[in-house]
Amino acid sequence: MRLQELDTSRRFRAEVLTSRRITPARSPVEVRELELAVPSGMPGCDAGQSVGVLAPGDPELSQAEHLRLYTVADMPQTIDSDRVKLKLCVRRCDYVDRYSGERYQGRASHYLCDRHVGDAVVLTGPYGDIFRLPDDPQADLILIAAGTGIAPYRAFIRRIDDDHPDFQGTIHLIHGGRSRLDLLYQNEVLDDLSQYTTRDRFRATTAVAERPHWSENIDWDAALEPQAEPLRQALLAPHTYVYLAGLEPIRDEIDRVLGKTFGSIETWARRKAELIAGGRWHELLY
After folding, report:
1. pLDDT tens for the chain, residues 1 to 286
2. Can 3-127 and 140-285 be said to share one CATH topology?
3. Domain coordinates of the chain in residue numbers?
4. What is the 3-state secondary structure (H, E, C) of 13-32?
5. CA gap 32, 55 in Å, rounded
6. 228-236 vs 249-261: helix axis angle to the nearest 10?
7. For 234, phi and psi rounded to 5 degrees?
8. What distance in Å separates the CA atoms of residue 69 and residue 123, rounded to the nearest whole number?
């Protein structure tokens, strides 16, 4: 999804209801969950979709506004006849200029993380495809995410739980973060995904960096190799659907690990192509 191609003409004024940090204070990664009140006239958002946030632009670049997309982190909830509540999951980001080596703040992420209760935020959208539950109530789901990529799965799992009581398939959530402190919705601050781990048909696998204080590279191999054969069998089954969410590099990392699981990159590429052709592979990458 290319930002410059998005239609941002329909805009909606949202109000910040709450803003809280959902990574522990001792974690070097700050992720916040914002609850926003949006007008009920804004088109509904569903799991897997994103809203556009229009932050103030960079005056040095003669930029009036700065657009970034954030996936919906929970199912929308009605507040009253005029407003709906949306939740966004936002990581405060910095980036280093590859030529000068200077560090710059991410304009949209810092803007959102610095909002206070009562502040206004301009939204546009929603954008993207909905994470659709397969028609087969016995289908098995593999949900793979890194970092804030888990946000749409939180909404997806809750929608399944609330709206599809007849769903009997398994849900295997595979979530990666630099350290266990950074595993969103599964840490000491906010652990609401844990309510699902007691269910027979829900399973969670976590992957973290081998040396979290030295590297941000998630050790997917260590997390997935012990279950390589069950994972391979699941990916070969005719009723398995796979969802992948996070920053684009996660695609190559998961392809590399699953290439090992299937014995070669070529063998995995053929199987992945079959999943895509059958509508059983879905990506939400940014």
Report:
1. 566 678 888 899 999 999 999 888 888 888 899 999 999 888 878 888 889 999 988 777 667 888 999 988 888 888 988 899 999 999 898 777 677 777 778 889 999 999 999 999 999 988 888 888 898 999 999 999 888 888 888 888 888 888 888 888 999 989 887 766 666 766 666 767 666 655 678 888 878 776 554 456 788 888 888 889 999 999 999 999 999 988 888 899 999 999 999 999 999 999 999 999 999 999 888 7
2. no
3. 3-127, 140-285
4. EEEEEEEEECCCCCCCCCEE
5. 17
6. 100
7. -65, -40
8. 10
Residue 74 to residue 202: CA distance in whole angstroms:
18
Does domain 140-285 fall under CATH 3.30.420.40? My reply is no
Instruction: Give the global pTM.
Output: 0.83
- Domain 3-127 carries which CATH code? 2.40.30.10
- Please provide residue 196's backbone torsions phi and psi, each rounded to the nearest 5 degrees: -90, -20
**Tokens of residue 147, six digits:** 């970092």
Per the CB < 8 A criterion, the answer to whether 99 and 21 are in contact is: no
The gap from C-alpha 86 to its chain's centroid, in whole angstroms, comes to 15
Residue with tokens 């805009």: 11
> Strands, DSSP E only, in the chain?
11-21, 31-39, 50-56, 65-71, 77-78, 83-91, 94-96, 103-105, 120-127, 140-146, 171-177, 202-208, 240-246, 281-285
Please enumerate in sequence order all residues whose Cβ is within 8 A of that of 115, keeping only pairs 6 or more positions apart, or say none: 16, 19, 34, 121
Picking from 107, 127, 113, 117, the residue whose alpha carbon sits closest to that of residue 37 is: 117
